Amino acid sequence: MNQAKQQAESKSIPTVKLLINGEFVDSTSTEWRDIVNPATQQVLARVPFATNDEVNRIVASAKAAFHTWRKTPIGARARIFLKYQQLIRENMKELAALLTAEQGKTLPDAEGDIFRGLEVVEHAANIGNLQMGELANNVASGVDTYTLQQGLGVCAGITPFNFPAMIPLWMFPMAIACGNTFVLKPSEQDPMVTMRLVELALEAGIPPGVLNVVHGGEAVVNALCDHPDIKAISFVGSTKVGTHVYHRATLAGKRVQCMMGAKNHAIVLPDANKEQTLNSIAGAAFGAAGQRCMALSAIVLVGEANNWIPELVEKARSLKINGGTEVNTDIGPLISCAARERVEGFIASGIESGAKLELDGRNPDVPGYKDGNFVGSTIFSGVKPGMKIYDQEIFGPVLCIVSAATLDEAIEFINDNPNGNGTAIFTQSGAAARRFEEEIDVGQIGINVPIPVPVPLFSFSGSRASKLGDLGPYGKQVILFYTQTKTITARWFEDGAVTGGVNTTISLK
């Protein structure tokens, strides 16, 4: 292809904008990345890696907007999010199609991605009941003490590729509802659906400067961590990047919450409902092509449940691999060619380390999508710690099977893993389930529920190596994260009244 033709084609590809002070702005950056449909390799758009000057302009816009937004009545903030949830519902099909095109997950799963974010938007619309302080009347003679929950200022969010709708919607609605302004940095791999959600947020009434968007890679992440006008950062992504963000941003004096990598386990007891359990395992392990931080990537079969492996393999083998827009597709493509190569490398390492390959998902035949980044359901049995497929997060449709003789042995095995994002048990025994929830050292627990992500009334509570920071996203914890508690102790006197003389003690009398 000659240079002139390449330039012409490049100009015909849409570009993703920055959002600065309520306006969508073309970046002046010289560094750009293609957004590629992972099922076809079609270039959908190009996204800029913002310049340092653009980062500063964006943060300055958010800082200026905070001075008026923080004084906006709480009811006015809530009504914006009531309107916003309506707009998301009305545009659900369009949003899902956009998400599938750039991320690859099936259309039903894309709608699920958006819906779980929509639940948080609905929660943000209830901010009037969430952002309330406390009051104690007459704590001493004529003295009242009460608290205020006020916005911090400019907050920032860094989001991953695997949930380009849900996770941005975890972040900016709650932060903004609490009275903050926000700078969002979506994944550079699939920012298009995020930008459409941002457009709808502006349509719902979010004022200029209250929500801003910057694009980029490591340099932009570092700029957000270092910027003195950013007060808090929320991050979801890999352990490597999350650890970097946490340490760099906390050293800069910021509040930080980082939801990171995982190795999620489920224990299967032989008394479990077999068909329901196998369906749950297959869906949680292979849905979204395994690209979920809450994916079920390891199961511990206890006792006679080890005899279920052939049936699990057949269940996994029956899942349909195809482009995400095709009807009845169960598994779409991985996000990129590099991701596919990485997952295939893990599968090869599992064979080399001595695990038994029960089902090989490499090189599936997907008619009409010969260039897609597809890996099908893959299952290993005989997996042990020390194997790369167990020790690392694969982020692909690969399930590791471990064997245990007893429930106690299975619990000990899971507790020895450093991660603590989510875990589950499948059983019909209330006593076993209670023992599991008491003894397991993992933040989020499912009982006959394979992916125990809570609804927004509760906080996402991953733990140990899966989380840095004390407070999780959404729920009650995120209100504390996005607000500063002020405690006021007040005494009022009648005109001319004098109570006692000079008091040189610390007590209130």
UniProtKB/TrEMBL annotation:
<dbReference type="InterPro" id="IPR015590">
    <property type="entry name" value="Aldehyde_DH_dom"/>
</dbReference>
<dbReference type="GO" id="GO:0006210">
    <property type="term" value="P:thymine catabolic process"/>
</dbReference>
<keyword id="KW-0520">NAD</keyword>
<protein>
    <recommendedName>
        <fullName>methylmalonate-semialdehyde dehydrogenase (CoA acylating)</fullName>
        <ecNumber>1.2.1.27</ecNumber>
    </recommendedName>
</protein>
<keyword id="KW-0560">Oxidoreductase</keyword>
<dbReference type="InterPro" id="IPR016161">
    <property type="entry name" value="Ald_DH/histidinol_DH"/>
</dbReference>
<dbReference type="GO" id="GO:0006574">
    <property type="term" value="P:L-valine catabolic process"/>
</dbReference>
<dbReference type="Pfam" id="PF00171">
    <property type="entry name" value="Aldedh"/>
</dbReference>
<dbReference type="InterPro" id="IPR016160">
    <property type="entry name" value="Ald_DH_CS_CYS"/>
</dbReference>
<dbReference type="GO" id="GO:0004491">
    <property type="term" value="F:methylmalonate-semialdehyde dehydrogenase (acylating, NAD) activity"/>
</dbReference>
<comment type="similarity">
    <text>Belongs to the aldehyde dehydrogenase family.</text>
</comment>
<dbReference type="InterPro" id="IPR010061">
    <property type="entry name" value="MeMal-semiAld_DH"/>
</dbReference>
<dbReference type="InterPro" id="IPR016162">
    <property type="entry name" value="Ald_DH_N"/>
</dbReference>
<feature type="domain" description="Aldehyde dehydrogenase">
    <location>
        <begin position="24"/>
        <end position="488"/>
    </location>
</feature>
<dbReference type="InterPro" id="IPR016163">
    <property type="entry name" value="Ald_DH_C"/>
</dbReference>
